[in-house]
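Q&A log
Question type: sequence-to-structure
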Amino acid sequence: MSATAPPCPCGSRQPAAACCDPLLAGAPAPTALALMRSRYVGYVRQAIDYLLATHDPATVATVDRAALTAWARDTTWAGLEIVETRAGGPTDTAGEVEFVAHGHHRGRAFAQRERSRFRRLDGRWVYVDGVARPATPPGRNEPCPCGGGAKYKRCHGG
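Response status: OK
Response body:
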């Protein structure tokens, strides 16, 4: 990486221009992991249209755009750690990526662990859904870190 090229926020250690930037600009992700990393960058950059465009059309209706926007806006992202991948390669039709996203939401530190499911739809990877397991859960009445819009107690904290 050159001294002037900023590293990609996804933690790949590659320049952003050679990593997630092309995906956020519309290039298809070659793997489920690449889509996962680019969606993390979408949160970092508050690229809500990208996050919705890379969400499976079968489940995107469950996303509350206003809540997703508020979550991204009120969060300072501190890093992405990939825990495990299952399938999701260039020739697969489905895959899973488990990760931990670190950050601060409204000044409170968190580490959100999630196992996300992806599928290939018309040749492009899309995010289907995920099971979030916050390592540092928010308060019961705070927004759930998954970005779904519900309070934590009613979403993944139940």
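Response note: The chain has a mean pLDDT of 89.
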